[in-house]
Design a protein that fits this description.
Blueprint: H1 2-8, H2 18-30, E1 44-45, E2 48-49, E3 68-73, H3 92-104, E4 107-110, H4 112-121, E5 129-137, H5 140-153, E6 158-162, H6 175-183, E7 187-192, H7 203-221, E8 227-229, H8 237-245, E9 250-252, E10 258-259, E11 271-272, H9 279-288
Helix pairs in contact: 3-5, 3-9, 7-8
């Protein structure tokens, strides 16, 4: 497992401690590069046309405007001795306590596809307060330890998988585990083929890391794979253009904040959850990071906040 963490320490969420600041600062610098949202395409698989998403519900026709927090997790296990980035490890009992605290505070987990359907077509996210739970890199502990907790709550997660670099021997998800996540209602998204630093690649390599990764996952699992997660939070205008060209709906970053429909969907912020975060600390982190500091608007559905 230590080897796997070394590979992914600057993963979609970047490294903990010092590496966190480096990734966040680089992402913030890139945040101002060009790029606007464009319509996305529907992929195909060996089974035929891949549906737009697995979103269910009746669209109101009035796009939602509320902001939603997106949390970022990595390994759901205690850090082993000598782990170079212990902040990336959230023990299973700590994760369970955080999820129970979220539920008690009125939150419930939704996917990025559901969030996009709310923002674009008014498909309700209620009742309650929606939150997105993303899991980076594709660690087996996300299946072994996070999935059972979310199942008990009737919740789902977003798996930002990378296709290489985390083999099962190093704690990576197996094919059967990925299928298990999908069967439980999780959404499959990606960080690309090998977690490469995309801003350093030539055009062919960039296309391989972004577009080919989506095509492989669509064919293998027959799901849309609508969202990209920038490895290490590194991106620029060229990377955004490649993500758009590959047909992704949007992308997630390591910039802290709540996701808003008024922002570029290819630069959605997330909140990194580090090991040692108490349930109350997580609730404070979420509340303190809301962009405008105002109460969230209606998310649709009866009894919403």
């Amino acid at each position: 497992m230590a080897t796997a963490i070394a590979i992914a320490a600057t993963g979609g969420g970047g490294s903990a401690t010092t590496g966190t600041q480096t990734s966040a600062s680089r992402a913030t610098a890139s945040h101002h590069d060009g790029g606007k949202a464009t319509a996305h395409s529907v992929g195909t698989s060996s089974q035929g046309t891949i549906p737009h998403s697995t979103v269910t519900g009746v669209a109101t026709g009035k796009p939602g405007t509320a902001t939603v927090p997106v949390l970022m997790y990595h390994v759901i296990n205690p850090p082993p001795a000598g782990a170079p980035f212990p902040g990336l490890y959230v023990p299973a009992d700590e994760f369970a306590a955080q999820m129970e605290a979220l539920k008690a505070a009125g939150w419930h987990a939704v996917t990025l596809d559901q969030l996009e359907a709310f923002w674009t077509r008014g498909v309700p996210l209620g009742p309650g307060k929606p939150i997105v739970l993303t899991f980076d890199n594709g660690y087996a502990s996300q299946y072994e330890n996070a999935l059972p907790v979310l199942k008990r709550l009737g919740w789902v997660g977003n798996e930002n998988i990378q296709l290489s670099g985390l083999p099962p021997s190093q704690g990576g998800l197996t094919d059967a585990q990925v299928r298990g996540l999908l069967a439980a209602g999780w959404e499959l998204d990606t960080q690309g083929i090998s977690h490469a630093d995309l801003i350093t690649l030539d055009p062919a390599e960039l296309q391989y890391q972004v577009a080919t990764a989506r095509q492989i996952l669509q064919k293998r699992y027959g799901v849309p794979v609508n969202w990209f997660c920038y490895p290490s939070g590194h991106y620029n205008a060229t990377v955004i253009a490649a993500v758009k060209a590959a047909g992704f709906v949007g992308s997630t970053t390591v910039i802290p904040g709540w996701a808003s429909p008024n922002e570029d969907p290819y630069r959605l912020p997330r909140l990194r959850v580090l090991g040692g975060t108490s349930p109350s600390g997580l609730l404070e982190q979420i509340a303190g990071s809301q962009a405008d500091g105002t109460p969230p608007a209606s998310y649709g559905g009866a009894g919403t906040a």
